[in-house]
Design brief:
Layout lengths: L2 H40 L2 H34 L2 H35 L6 H30 L4 E4 L2 E4 L2 H5 L4 H29 L5 H35 L1 H8 L10 E8 L4 E8 L2 H7 L19 H32 L4 H9 L3 H15 L4 E3 L3 E2 H4 L5 H36 L18
Antiparallel strand pairs: 1-2, 3-4, 5-6
Length: 450
């Protein structure tokens, strides 16, 4: 296989594994802050029990996110040196801002968050939790600034083939950044919400109806039910932004070949890139025109307008439908479970089973969305500035293939171990009950500093 293809697969494998963990920790930190604030407001120990149980999940997830991020960053030097050579004046500072304003903040206060509850005053512990949550969000902000700039570059000029910043405000708030940031933060919220709801539902099915289980379950379900319609709206706005700036990506997402109006919304098809057509189409007449142009007669550019300059169609087309399909399933399950909790105060057996099945649904939707975004940018690495092949190293294909195989084996093992640990932590909590709760201080009598 070609060295560039192998290098792309390796980077995709690394970023796919890495993104699983920040997608959880970004929002889980805010859920932990919610648990802590509820405890402070009510003095009810179930909220602190929930905090203690889920902060362990946060710690394991955070550690894997840090480690996997390091291996991913190495590849800028090993497989893609041309990237930093050409746009390093912009990418380098943005990555440095992420370390300085976000990662250091998280690393500084996470120890207090994990181990300081009985060693510092209650308000200090709450503040540490809030700062870690803020740090995770700032980390996402800077990474998405860079990623968005690669899609819709602005605020720079080329001098002797090298990008130089001319307007950092334009670089940071480039045309797609607000939409991409909101879309990703909501994806994180949904991922964490379904994780909390799914593992809590698993305990519920095992007969554990402790207050901490029901508190976690309700939090996960209600957060998911509240966020999913907002995510659908944000996704629609992001799609309109993409149509404006990356019409070839939209054409691939829709499997649309000929420029014209009354474009159907394809629910399913088999794109044939060689023949430039689709087989076995099943669609809603004029649906794509209505969504993208708000007019059933709206004209949308087809892939044939971007001959040789559009992304691979099939992976973008299918990944988009997986993302949207998972979003619809999230809407159905979260609203059905929220309705059951509001009407009956508890779940039905099938509601709980559905939640368990959706425990890692956020991962599926996030990965599918990232594949749409990143494959949809091809053949560009930085749109209009640098094509992917220009950044590739001279590392021979066999060496890349060997390291790729090692990464895949390692990541598969780590992923299985991570999921097993999550359920082992849940099972341990079931066996142990909530021993921390009996010794918790009330909100009115916080722990004194030792």
């Amino acid at each position: 296989m070609d060295a560039i293809i192998l290098a792309r697969i390796q980077f995709a494998a690394n970023i796919s594994f890495h993104i699983l963990f920040p997608t959880i920790t970004i929002a889980l930190a805010w859920i932990l802050l919610f648990f802590k604030l509820r405890f402070n407001a009510t003095g009810d120990s179930k909220w602190m029990d929930a905090y203690f149980q889920w902060v362990k999940v946060f710690a394991v997830t955070f550690a894997l996110g840090v480690v996997s991020g390091i291996t991913m960053s190495f590849q800028f030097g090993t497989n893609w040196p041309g990237f930093m050579e050409k746009v390093g004046n912009i990418a380098g500072p943005l990555l440095a801002y992420e370390v300085l304003t976000a990662f250091f903040l998280e690393a500084t206060f996470i120890a207090i968050m994990l181990f300081g509850f009985r060693k510092v005053r209650n308000w200090v512990h709450t503040l540490a939790t809030a700062l870690v949550a803020f740090g995770t969000t700032m980390s996402a902000f800077w990474i998405l600034v860079l990623n968005s700039w690669m899609h819709t570059p602005a605020g720079f000029e080329m001098r002797d083939g090298v990008a130089h910043a001319t307007d950092w405000f334009a670089i940071i708030f480039n045309p797609s950044m607000p939409y991409r940031l909101v879309h990703m933060l909501l994806a994180s919220g949904l991922t964490a919400a379904f994780l909390v709801a799914g593992i809590s539902a698993w305990r519920w099915l095992k007969g554990d109806r402790a207050p901490v289980v029901m508190a976690s379950l309700r939090t996960g379900v209600y957060v998911a039910a509240a966020l999913i319609p907002v995510q659908i709206l944000a996704g629609d706005m992001h799609g309109l932004n993409t149509l404006e700036h990356q019409p070839a990506k939209i054409a691939a997402m829709e499997g649309h070949w000929e420029t014209g109006g009354n474009v159907p919304l394809l629910l399913f098809a088999v794109p044939d890139e060689k023949a430039q057509t689709n087989h076995f189409e099943l669609g809603i007449p004029s649906g794509a025109s209505l969504i993208l142009k708000h007019d059933p007669d709206g004209v949308i550019q087809g892939l044939k307008d971007f001959e040789g300059k559009h992304p691979p169609v099939a992976p973008v087309f299918y990944a988009f439908r997986i993302m949207v399909g998972m979003g619809m399933l999230m809407l159905l399950v979260s609203w059905a479970c929220a309705w059951a909790l509001r009407r009956r105060g508890t779940l039905g057996i099938w509601h709980a089973r559905a939640l368990v099945g959706m425990t890692f649904s956020g991962w599926v939707a996030t990965l599918a969305g990232w594949y749409v975004t990143e494959i949809g940018r091809q053949p560009w690495l930085v749109t209009g500035v640098m094509k992917t092949w220009e950044a590739a190293s001279a590392v021979p294909a066999p060496q890349i293939g060997l390291s790729l195989a090692m990464y895949l084996v390692l990541y598969a093992g780590l992923l299985v171990a991570y999921i097993a640990v999550l359920f082992k932590l849940a099972a341990k909590a079931m066996r142990d009950g909530a021993p921390e709760g009996s010794a918790l201080p009330t909100a009115a009598a916080p722990v004194a500093a030792e």
